[in-house]
Amino acid sequence: MRPIFIAGNWKLNPPTLAEARQLAVDLKVQLPSGSGVEVAVCPPAAFLAPVVEAVSGSSIKVGSQDSSPHASGAYTGELSTNMVKSLGCAYAVIGHSERRQYHGETNQSVNQKTVAALASGLVPIVCVGETLAEREDSVTFAVVEQQLREGLKGLSDSVKTGAELVIAYEPVWAIGTGKVATPAQAQEVHAFIRQILASIFNSAIADRLVIQYGGSVKADNAEELLSQTDIDGALVGGASLKADSFVGIITAANAVAVSA
Ligand code: PGA
C-alpha cells in the first residue's frame, strides 16, 4: 500500500560540480527500469540546479538537505523552500541529526522549517532518532515521541492524505558508523512512530505515511530492513555516493516491492 522510497543524502559531497553531475548521470543511466520504487537524491545546495538538470527525463527526484523557515529577507546564507521548489526539487530533508548536532537545530526549528516546506509544496523528510547515550538510558521512545510531537506540531491542516510528508528514523549511533540497527530494532521504533503519527494525525494518515530508516544502509542489508512491516524506505548517506552501491539498494528495494 505504501510506496518504497529510497533517498540519497550526499551531505557535503562530492567536492566538485563535475563529480556531482557525473554521479547524477551515472545514477540516471544505471537506474533499474520499471522500478516501482521512488528514488531521490539530496545534493548540497550549490549542486541542486545542475543535478535537477542531470536527472531530468528520469523518475529520479531531487531534494535539499535543509531549508529555511523564512520565505525571504535579511537571512544571510539561507535557502528558502520557495527557492528549492523553484529549482524543480520535490523534497527537503529537515532536522537531520547532523543539523541538530552541529547547527543547533531544535524540535522547534524543525517544526518551523517543516511548516515552510509544506507551504511551498515540498515534501519534508523529517528526521528523528536517538543518540547512543539515549538508547543506553532506555529513553529512545520518549526522545522520538518528543521529536515527533514537537517537530510536527500544528500540521494537521497541511497533512491531509499522508503523501505530503515523509519521516526518517535515523538512530544517531548508526549514522556513518557501519553499525546498522537490526531489522527488529528498527521495526520496533518504526511501529512506535506509526502509532504516534496516528495519535498526531489519524490512523488512516499514519497508515499512508512513509517512514524511512537511515543509518549505514547498504545493498547487503537493505532487503532485510525493507522487508519489515513498518520500514517503507531508506535515507542513505555513504552508500549513495557511488552509483553502483546506491543502485544496489534500489535493486534490493525492487525485490521487496515485487514480493510484497
Ligand atoms: P549513512 O548516513 O548511510 O552514511 O549512515 C545516513 C544519513 O545520515 O542519512
Please provide a written account of the structure.
It is a single chain. The chain is of the alpha/beta class. The protein has one domain (5-259): TIM Barrel (Alpha-Beta Barrel), CATH 3.20.20.70. It has helices spanning 17-30, 48-55, 81-86, 97-102, 107-120, 132-136, 140-151, 183-200, 203-208, 219-226, 243-259, and strands spanning 5-9, 38-42, 61-64, 91-94, 123-128, 166-169, 210-214, 233-236. It has an 8-stranded parallel barrel, surrounded by 6 helices. The chain is globular. Residues 9, 170, 175-176, 214-217, 235-239 line the site of 2-phosphoglycolic acid.
Write out key terms for the chains shown.
260 residues, binds 2-phosphoglycolic acid, 11 helices, eight-stranded parallel β-barrel, alpha/beta, globular, 14% strand
Give a count of the beta strands, DSSP E runs of length 2 or more: 8
CATH superfamily: Aldolase class I
CATH fold topology: TIM Barrel
Portion of residues within helices: 40-55%
Helix count from the secondary structure assignment: 11
Mean model confidence by pLDDT: 96
Order of helical and strand elements: EHEHEHEHHEHHEHHEHEH
- Integer tally of domains: 1
Cα-atom radius of gyration:
17 Å
Overall geometric form: globular
Annotated CATH architecture: Alpha-Beta Barrel
> In percent, how much strand structure appears in the residues?
5-15%
Q: How would a crystallographer describe the biggest sheet?
A: 8 strands, parallel, barrel
Ligand list: 2-phosphoglycolic acid
CATH class: Alpha Beta
* Unreliable runs: none
**N-end to C-end Cα span:** 9 Å
Strand order in the sheet with the most strands: 1-2-3-4-5-6-7-8
Helix-strand category: alpha/beta
